Amino acid sequence: MASSMHPSSPCFSLQSLPSNGSVSKSRTTSIFLRLGSPTAISLRSLIASRGSDRIGIGGENAGRMRSKVLAVSTQVMDESVSKATISKVPTIVKVDLGDRSYPIYIGSGLLNQPDLLQRHVHGKSVLVVTNTTIAPLYLDKVVVALTRDNPKVSVESVILPDGEQYKDMDTLMKVFDKAIESRLDRRSTFVALGGGVIGDMCGFAAATFLRGVNFIQIPTTVMAQVDSSVGGKTGINHRLGKNLIGSFYQPQCVLVDTDTLNTLPDRELASGFAEVIKYGLIRDAEFFEWQEKNMHLLMARDPSALAYAIKRSCENKAEVVSLDEKESGLRATLNLGHTFGHAVETGVGYGQWLHGEAVAAGMVMAVDLSHRLGWIDESLVRRVDSILKQAKLPTAPPESMTVEMFKSVMAVDKKVADGLLRLILLRGPLGNCVFTGDYDRLALDETLQAFCKS
Amino acid sequence: MASSMHPSSPCFSLQSLPSNGSVSKSRTTSIFLRLGSPTAISLRSLIASRGSDRIGIGGENAGRMRSKVLAVSTQVMDESVSKATISKVPTIVKVDLGDRSYPIYIGSGLLNQPDLLQRHVHGKSVLVVTNTTIAPLYLDKVVVALTRDNPKVSVESVILPDGEQYKDMDTLMKVFDKAIESRLDRRSTFVALGGGVIGDMCGFAAATFLRGVNFIQIPTTVMAQVDSSVGGKTGINHRLGKNLIGSFYQPQCVLVDTDTLNTLPDRELASGFAEVIKYGLIRDAEFFEWQEKNMHLLMARDPSALAYAIKRSCENKAEVVSLDEKESGLRATLNLGHTFGHAVETGVGYGQWLHGEAVAAGMVMAVDLSHRLGWIDESLVRRVDSILKQAKLPTAPPESMTVEMFKSVMAVDKKVADGLLRLILLRGPLGNCVFTGDYDRLALDETLQAFCKS
């Protein structure tokens, strides 16, 4: 499971946590599961296979889970430490996957610390995969970080067009073309420099070039920093659905330089907050409450608030991924709102809505359905609506979406099993969710009709 | 490591082994490694990481290796058993890869035994991937085997054009298109029905569709039955080189119905024998000697000789793959002749030469280089030439190949590491090889010049 480590110094980059930013070690978040459902069975099997000391589900085991799985160590740094010193010491969240474990470095100015990157580069050749927006901003900086005092390494780069609409096989082939023309070999390292699209594509290229080469993530958007760069999901879209072609492939490290957010457009910033909000809803009530009180700071790009939100999001993701790397069950809960959201992205055309915008609308729909099923209080419906509006995120799908469009895309969702669409829905108090195919189809129809004009 | 198992019956399909077909339990084959070379180091690391009880290399450990790793149990069946009974009981070679272990079933009439396939099908949906040559011959039979007394399973199929020239991304996309249009989900199973091209492409599609679905191999060529269907290498070609895009992805099982060889063209049959000969050269002297005496039976399609050659080849492959799944070192030795051979396939255009034909020419070149380096006796050069001629395989590359063509394709070979081309070469007595970058480049140039007009 995830843990926070602070190498060589007791301080880290959260010098002034926003109010309510302190983290209790007795958080009460838990995964609520319907024992007896097929999903619960698969999760219990998963847990059994991981050893009984790893996690318990609800009831008598809930206390142990809180203390062992969800306990997150945090340290509030000594305010006497200067900001210059602060930026040198990254927070580290570890993704624990046995011999595929890796660190997530989080902090300001990390791209100015060549050692962080260089220690994870294998071989003499690096291919940086980035896009036309990010290349002018950070490519030179990354090349310097890879090569400073390191003359043996040569760096090539490939600059892809920017946007979800280019997350396809044709664009992926440009990465292979460049890698082969540059005569990169199995000991080379691919570096993803950009947002989620770049990370997913570069990761898939790394997974499949010569049957697998080393891979480093340098995410430059909130979306990528809190979600897509962590956990090893890689892939591309098919015209009929999102992320239908891909691999599970873990990076050597994830390097989150929070300074890269300085150049992020507001719309992209907000898109990332959709995933931050998601973690609160599905498993971390205290984090959600913190967001409710501090969303204005996040929207104002307060560095400390951003750093805290990124770190806590990564901790949540790392914990889930460590317990269920290949999405046997638990990991699917990270997809709250994504089935509806993917339908929106596919339906309106890739790149029209940002991923987080579509997920926000999708979460509203999942929450609506959860409420129709009688699984959550109305107050939670209002709180979700409110926080998404604070984050300037959509709270409904675009008007062009029809019930039929939703249904046709959702039919090829990766969570369909033997013809049955399973969904992540909220159930119980804030911070609890279920992943289940056991819900009333009429209620789903009602939700779709409520959000679509036809 | 590999072992032979014979479930529920003491008999199996080798009713009358060809003369010299009996297998001694004290075979003297071994992998010869140059201790002190970088290759030797990586192999030693590999072996250390697998536990000291698995394998030793040369010298004082050679005896233990012979007895523990290479001992292959075989059973000569009771001749009183009728042929009808014989065909019911497959030989099973196990590929031991922890929780990814799987059986290779080998025998006559196995496609008439639905249980063998059905026990490995997960979920309700199956996609059979085959080609225009094989579909008219065996697709109906496979569909029956999958669905007989099994009404819950639905089977879709996609029929690809036949030939190495179609092992590309465009053709692969047809598999994804069909899978998505058929609304296959993560619990579905992909079945590869055909030769090596179909197996590699279907396997890669299975590895990457929805980030991985179940996969079964039904190889219908000698090449696929003795080599490409076993071990989990999947992938497609790039216009600049063979198999440059792919994954390691293990099947649920491999089902070798030797009856499918009845429809195999002579040229394809011979192509597969190139890999059979390879096993003898790199690690199984006794098997090579058996081939020298029995190649005429193999060429005459003697069922027993074929079954024996397939089984012993699979055992050799399974042993190597079990010790080095991801090709850290040892597994690379299975590529004897392949670096030269891939250059031929790429140079003359995919599909012009069959893979085994190119490998045969490549082995002759590797043997020539080994001899120039003084690593093997001239008698071995002659024996290789002789057995390939018996198998009606080429003993030189096509005249259109130039030194420059070889060099440009070999520069992007997967065995290049940090710019250095490593090769599999024979060294020492028959059955010994090295995987090394430590050879005289001038000797390589001489070999290329000896086999090319320009």
Most extensive interface between two protein chains, with residue counts:
A-B, 39 and 39 residues
Overall geometry of chain A comes to globular
**Distance between the ends of chain A:** 45 Å
**Could you state the oligomeric state of the chains shown?**
homodimer
Catalytic activity (chains A, B): 7-phospho-2-dehydro-3-deoxy-D-arabino-heptonate = 3-dehydroquinate + phosphate
Main location (chains A, B): plastid
Keywords (chains A, B): Amino-acid biosynthesis, Aromatic amino acid biosynthesis, Lyase, Metal-binding, NAD
Organism (chains A, B): Nepenthes gracilis (Slender pitcher plant)
Outline of the structure:
2 copies of one chain form a homodimer. Chain A is an alpha/beta fold and 454 residues long.
